[in-house]
User: Which sequence fits this backbone?
């Protein structure tokens, strides 16, 4: 395919690319007849002739192919769920990786294009001048590789400079088509909730952008060390080396920052945000893609961030601080009991807890907050060198001032002059971190309670539970959670992620043990006697429990909940799926007749203080109702009704009870025990069981009579 592109390139064809396919800010700018700042569009806009429809860009074959290749990522149709392929295994992902390695090589130079002529080279679309220095990047917006010099023929151009136009073109197209969907003005408008979002990136889109970010770090870090002699530098630095020096701040930084800001503010609060998170963390850690290898050591200590990265951190301060605050606001609105959400908090905390990183971010904030000094022509000192009148032996103060100027230039260029900076290590953000730490503690306790409940449920569902003769729990509540379906291993991972995340947050923000202990105590105040069930935060009133704003937040995020349970007359609750409907109705009539006939006698028996009274109270009253009332915010009047002692035969309508009885009769027949004898044995066994339960549990079982 590329051979065909280069063949057409040699014949200098031009192709029309519709402006309507371009990202929103660029399209709007061209339609308003304002030339975009990016040099990619210079001398390419073609206005329609009379009667023509729409604007077009006149592109050479290489640009034309790369534009359509880049736009296919954001216009691709969703593939069917049955043919889901991992993005990293797709042909598109592999092609992007191949193009980046070819045109932005970390070793060597860009490979020359194949020539269809035995003795000739493929001409570039416009002549380049080798005399243009790359230091102008960051100060001017015109391309240094596409400057038209009418009087200079192409054959006299530097071959290296001829090659590099493809590298710059490829990078500009990728950045424009993948990241430039939000301008600064559009980003500010998007803060309003009434503005409809014009573009929604997909997870595959974000993964490809992350691949681009990782490769650009490796490409930039492959820059050769500067020679000590300035004269040697001027003769040996190639265009590719100079391109590596400016590729991230000149081409990527601003558009990626706005793209990330939009994703942090508009991406759904689910696990798919992990792709955006990893792209952000990849950009924050250029040292991971540096060519030097970390020293081998037997101790698994985290690698300290070198001081040589301080300049990168300072010139990308908002990437670290403002986006960290944005992540905090997202984390405070997510369910941290979910293992995937817990993993994201752990990943961010682990990255920011790298040794020396927090200190360098703090230093960058201090440089930004440094008061302005009235120094004439201060902006020129930023680019001053010894050959231009500067001195490396001068005092340290100008260097600090220039560093402060760089940080302020970075912040104000991205957010505007009236931007109110929120310090990452200030009081406001620290309070957000404390809230997150408190939520982590609550999520840990919730995960533990769910784990304990799951273990109890598994134990209660064992084979031998079929042989219980006590009535089944008809007041059982729904305690479902996503973790019930995930399993114990994931619950354990959640606890590990949250524990390590809390530890890293304490390292970053210097949280004391006393603060952690206080938070843990606050989290544990709502636990009941058995240390498992937690009620949402609420206050008691004469009408029952009333939720506080914190309690509503806990319920919405699944951190705590009330148990949903039936609190009316157990004899009148709906027929369950594990019950026989005809038997339920028949046994209800029989129980009602017995209760009506012997109500006075049962009342007298239950009022006795001897062993007979205790035995009757245990079996003829319902002590479970009062035990569970405190876990539901119902009106007190509804739970104060007293149904008195009564006989309940509904448990005999349960299929489990019926199958258990049939199984016992079947086993008894093997030992030649008839139905009458088996019934006598069952009644005797149950009587002994009732006596034992009365002796051991009457003391703590509540009753009503």
Assistant:
């Amino acid at each position: 395919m590329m051979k065909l592109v280069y063949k057409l390139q040699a014949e200098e064809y031009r192709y029309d690319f519709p402006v309507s396919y371009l990202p929103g800010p660029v399209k709007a700018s061209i339609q308003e007849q304002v030339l975009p700042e990016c040099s990619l569009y210079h001398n390419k806009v073609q206005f329609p002739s009379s009667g023509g429809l729409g604007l077009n860009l006149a592109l050479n074959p290489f640009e034309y192919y790369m534009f359509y290749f880049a736009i296919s990522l954001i216009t691709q149709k969703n593939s069917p769920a049955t043919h889901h392929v991992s993005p990293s295994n797709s042909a598109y992902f592999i092609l992007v990786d191949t193009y980046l390695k070819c045109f932005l090589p970390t070793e060597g130079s860009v490979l020359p294009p194949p020539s269809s002529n035995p003795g000739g080279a493929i001409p570039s679309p416009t002549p380049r001048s080798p005399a243009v220095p790359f230091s102008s990047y960051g100060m001017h917006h015109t391309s240094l590789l596409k400057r038209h010099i009418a009087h200079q023929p192409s054959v006299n151009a530097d071959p290296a400079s001829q090659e590099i136009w493809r590298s710059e073109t490829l990078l500009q197209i990728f950045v424009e088509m993948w990241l430039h969907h939000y301008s600064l003005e559009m980003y500010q408008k998007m803060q309003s909730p009434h503005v409809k979002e014009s573009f929604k990136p997909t997870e595959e889109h974000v993964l490809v952008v992350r691949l681009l970010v990782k490769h650009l770090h490796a490409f930039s870090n492959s820059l050769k060390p500067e020679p000590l002699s300035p004269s040697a530098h001027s003769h040996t630095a190639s265009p590719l080396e100079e391109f590596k020096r400016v590729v991230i701040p000149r081409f990527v930084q601003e558009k990626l920052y706005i793209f990330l800001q939009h994703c942090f503010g508009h991406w759904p609060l689910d696990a798919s945000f992990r792709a955006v998170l990893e792209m952000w963390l990849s950009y924050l850690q250029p040292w991971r893609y540096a060519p030097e290898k970390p020293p081998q050591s037997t101790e698994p200590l985290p690698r300290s961030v070198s001081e040589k990265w301080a300049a990168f951190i300072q010139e990308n301060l908002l990437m670290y601080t403002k986006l960290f605050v944005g992540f905090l606001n997202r984390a405070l609105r997510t369910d941290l009991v979910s293992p995937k959400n817990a993993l994201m908090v752990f990943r961010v905390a682990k990255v920011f807890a790298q040794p020396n990183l927090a200190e360098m971010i703090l230093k960058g904030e201090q440089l930004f907050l440094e008061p302005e000094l009235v120094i004439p022509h201060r902006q020129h000192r930023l680019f001053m060198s010894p050959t231009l009148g500067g001195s490396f032996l001068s005092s340290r103060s100008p260097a600090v001032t220039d560093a402060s100027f760089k940080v302020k230039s970075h912040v104000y260029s991205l957010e505007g002059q009236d931007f109110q900076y929120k310090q990452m290590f200030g009081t406001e953000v620290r309070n957000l971190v404390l809230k997150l730490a408190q939520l982590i503690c609550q999520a840990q306790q919730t995960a533990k309670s769910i784990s304990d409940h799951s273990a109890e449920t598994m134990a209660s569902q064992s084979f031998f539970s079929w042989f219980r003769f006590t009535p089944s729990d008809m007041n059982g509540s729904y305690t479902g959670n996503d973790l019930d379906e995930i399993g114990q291993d994931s619950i354990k991972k959640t606890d590990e992620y949250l524990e390590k995340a809390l530890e890293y947050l304490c390292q970053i923000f210097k949280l004391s043990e006393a603060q952690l202990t206080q938070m843990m105590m606050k989290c544990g105040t709502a636990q009941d006697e058995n240390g498992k069930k937690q009620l949402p935060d609420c206050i008691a009133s004469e009408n029952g429990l009333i939720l506080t704003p914190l309690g509503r937040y806990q319920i919405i995020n699944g951190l705590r909940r009330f148990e949903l349970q039936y609190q009316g007359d157990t004899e009148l609750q709906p027929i369950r799926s594990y019950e026989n409907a005809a038997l339920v109705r028949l046994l209800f009539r029989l129980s009602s007749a017995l209760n009506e006939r012997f109500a006075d006698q049962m009342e007298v028996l239950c009022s006795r203080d001897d062993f007979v009274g205790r035995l009757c109270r245990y079996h003829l009253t319902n002590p479970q109702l009062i035990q569970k009332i405190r876990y539901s915010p119902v009106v007190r009047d509804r739970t104060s009704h007293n149904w008195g002692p009564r006989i309940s035969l509904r448990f005999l309508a349960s299929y489990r009870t019926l199958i258990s009885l049939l199984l016992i009769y079947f086993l008894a027949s093997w030992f030649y025990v008839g139905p009458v004898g088996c019934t006598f044995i069952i009644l005797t066994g149950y009587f002994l069981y009732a006596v034992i339960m009365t002796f051991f549990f009457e003391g703590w079982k509540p009753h009503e009579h």
Observations:
- The chain has a mean pLDDT of 75.
- The first strand starts at residue 15 and ends at 18.
